[in-house]
Amino acid sequence: MTKYELPPVPYAYDALEPHIDARTMEIHHTKHHQTYTDKLNAALEKCPPEIQEKDILELLSHLDQVPAAQKGAINFNGGGFDNHRIFWNNMKPSGGGEPGGAVADAINSSFGSFSAFKEKFSSDTALIQGSGWGWLVYDPSTKKVGYKTMPNQTSPRTEGLNPLLGCDVWEHAYYLKYQNKRPDYISAWWNVVNWDDVDKRLKQVKS
Question: What is the rounded distance in angstroms from the CA atom of residue 24 to the CA atom of residue 38?
């Protein structure tokens, strides 16, 4: 069976200060992401061997392959596992600004301008009811990028979309510093976006 381990955060917990505080990062990674990882493994242990050996990306993209009794757990915890390993790499110290190259071209093509994209992403993500994520995704059927909200930990992969850039708006992602001011957290998050990582993901899914 494929056993998943908690991926490391590629920088110190305090490296995104003052935009995202160190205590939130530590709890988010060592408690929440660890729990998704552990519960994903527990759900896979209850699946037949041919499911246990499949990569989580394939399972999220083809949830119909998963036994009904474990489909909900793998959707939630597998999505949580994958979403967060993208999230950590989507951020970096001294990030932010505007993208260049292929990402900028793709955003301009789909949204008209980076400012229009940023406004839509920020406003729609802030309005997510309850817990969820805002995503910049690549749709292989149209060969264009788009914006998508997803509830809870459900991955865009479950809808045939490739996640490129995600903003986690579960309260545990921001409440210690921003309390109920979700829009302030999203505004701060733009300052740590790692556009190099987004560019890499776009190139991978288009190749």
Answer: 20
CA-CA distance, 66 to 109, in Å (whole number)? 36
Residue 49 and residue 28: Cα distance in Å, rounded? 31
Pairwise CA distance, residues 153 & 141, whole Å: 23
d(CA 186, CA 126): 7
The pLDDT tens digits for 115-143 are 999 999 999 999 999 999 999 999 999 99
Task: Give the span between the Cα atoms of 201 and 102, in whole angstroms.
Answer: 11
Rg (CA), the chain: 17
Query: How many alpha carbons lie under 13 Å from residue 18 in its C-beta half-sphere?
Result: 2
C-alpha dihedral, 160 to 165 to 167 to 172, nearest 10°: 90
81-118 pLDDT, tens digit each: 999 999 999 999 999 999 999 999 999 999 999 999 99
Q: How far is CA 185 from the centre of its chain?
A: 16
Give the β-pairing of 162-168 and 132-139. antiparallel
pTM of the model: 0.97
The residue behind tokens 């009794």 is: 69
What pLDDT does 1 receive? 83
The whole-angstrom distance between residue 106's C-alpha and the CA centroid of its chain comes to: 19
CA distance 197 to 189: 15
Distance CA 29, CA 23 (A): 10
Domains of the chain in start order, with CATH, are 22-89 (1.10.287.990), 101-206 (3.55.40.20)
